Amino acid sequence: MSVPAPLDNYLVVDMSDGIAGPYCTKMLADGGAEVVTVEPPEGDSLRTWSASGSVSAGDGDGALFGYLGCSKKSLVADPDDAGDIEILNRLLARADAVVWSPESRLAGVPGLAPSALCDAHPHLVVTAITPFGLEGPWCDRAATEFTLQAWSGGIVGLGRGAPDRAPVHVGGRIGEWFAGAYAAAATLTSLLRGGSGELIDLSMLETEIQGLTYHSVTFQELRDRPFRAERSIFVPGVSQASDGMVALGCATAQQWNDLCIMVGHPEWIDNDQPLQITARAAEFAPQIYEWIAERTVDEVCEAATAFRIPNAAVGNGANLPELAQHEQRGSYVKNPTHGFTQPGHPYRMSSFSLHQPEPAPRLGEHSEAIFAKLDTTAPERDRPQNRHGAKPFAGMRVLDMTAFWAGPSCTHILATLGAEVIHVESSTRPDMTRFIAGVPMTDESWWEKSPIFAGLNTNKKGVTLNIQTEKGQELLRELVKTCDVLVENYTPRVLDQIGLDYESVKGLRPDIIMVRMPGFGLDGPWRDKAAFAYVIEDASGLTWLTGHPDQNPIEPYSIGDPNAGIHALNGLLIALAHRDRTGEGTLVEASMIEAALNVSAEQVIEYSAYGSFLNRDGNRGPVAAPQNLYQTAGIDEFGRDDCWVAIAVATDDQWSALREAIGSPEWALDPDLESSDGRRAAHDLIDEQLQQWCRERNDDEIVDTLWGAGVPVAKVMQPHRQTELDQLASRRFFAQVEHPVNGTARHTTLPIRFSSAPEQFEMRPAPLLGEHNTEILSGIGVATDDFEQLENDKVIGRKLAF
């Protein structure tokens, strides 16, 4: 007997356009939901879209639409036809959820705005995806994904790029994909645990902050300095081998020391200053690059893997499906309509199968069938009881065996939304984000002073268990029995070696959902590779589209981790839907790499569908022309001539507005510039003229002039200045959190607002090392008299014990 798809009892109406909304509903369709895409008569804009310009009118639907539209139905509704709107409302009366974005022409119908949808259909979960959120002083301001990156601080936030060049954004419209994954998780949260009737307000600016910056405000306020203020090229980073590009990373002193030995120069190791990795690497960069250039990609990767140095071949649209790990695991599949190559699911389930992709619908293909169905009596729906005022995950206990950024970012959302999350560390091997603090080890309790650990672990409880000891493993097993969910992101061998693979965990708690987040998967030739965010970015194509075209690509150094976290959460929620219906637990294998392959899908799709090879293009992009960063007058807060604005003209009307705002100079009156194609052909000229105009003005003057005219524009912000943005203050995106050791600082909350929840998320400080040992371990039978002995044996502890 086949197991029903977990979401097959949900009807979702997609009233969005672009990438974020359709990616959200694709994830819901993969879980089995019935998704009806409502399109105007001319169709969704993606039907005629190709990043390389390979789709023309009459060519048929674009390949990206063919990917994002898999398994959906299409209903045509003319926004100007009252009869069509009435039919749409009848469909909404039967639906469970709506995904909405302002890009759709239907969004302009007054009765189809998010609040109006909630008023007309109180049972609906309405997820609105907008640049800044539905409310606040910026809610109606013009924006593109590119300008949102600038406002978020994500363009300069992690020191990406050469200091003698313009900063560079993360390519591939990554913010839209990431927002879509966040929207899917928010929608599922409300459907599964919120009850009927909810308005979910998602701000893409806030998702950009979560995905492209690294708790920069918290770091600034606790350490009184930015996390990273200067741009630099990370060495080795992306390098040219004899047969392609390869990436090596040194995130720790040990990895740098191992690299020195690997390339035959142990004398480069400086034990007196072990943390000066960046400076030492830059000093010896020519010799490192020479060593790499003399070897093939496979030879470099094999040597680096032997030394446990993070490494990967650098993937792009042409080579990604052929990389050994992706090929062996079947990470790519054929599109069911056109046969081009597209990513498979971003997670894998042990107890049931995700919905296999069916052909994307032709425009209006299902209109008649939907009309006929609406003429029948609607079946009675057993919708969950409304839980307004209650946190969605209250009552759920989560064992959090994660570290660094990817895993904790997943469990952080669960904790913020009410789950009891127990973060497991060891006093001998703590979560390494405790070391990202910039605090001397001579300071008392220095390991409690990391702003990064504080930001990722608010609302959690902390337990220390040394799982390298027999007693630690015994206590861990007892703790597993009390938990509904286990999330871990160790390398696969760690839990396997102590007998805590899924089958063993299932034996302890039969209905448990175990989410494993390995870097490259639980099998395959790269199974045991060290996986940091940048390595995942390299191996998935995210790096390839980032950087200037005349230089090697630059690793984003950010999105690989939180993107894995939000995809793992989606996998967990789909597994939760399965358990709600069947009582059965599940292993969710949510590898970091397959989450990244899904949000970099467009490169492989373009190449396999059209033979078009997408490449990095600095700060230009396929959506807007002109689109670039322009240097302005003024000195930045560090005393540098390094102030920039981002400008992106996405429509002809925006071009007219920009032209008038800058005084209609003669060069801008050229009729060829009236069209997007003409502006793209003249991009160099436009850049030169806009650069001259911007260089004579400061960033505030430029933003006031252009934004007031309706042109997407942004300051290129330092991320620690996010609190200066009026929109974030209005939405109470930051919460003051008082820590017993660190003091008080502002922490990010979540980039979503639930209408059933208070305006401000409750935020408790991250736990001290082993802070909740007594509370949690007493609950599994540890006697009061035993704690001292457990500490003496270093099974538990409240202080580091190396």
TrEMBL record:
GO MF term list: transferase activity
Enzyme class: transferase
EC numbers for this chain: 2.8.3.-
Species classification: Bacteria, Bacillati, Actinomycetota, Actinomycetes, Mycobacteriales
Highest rank taxon of the organism: Bacteria
Coiled coil: none
Protein name: CoA transferase
Keyword Glycosyltransferase: no
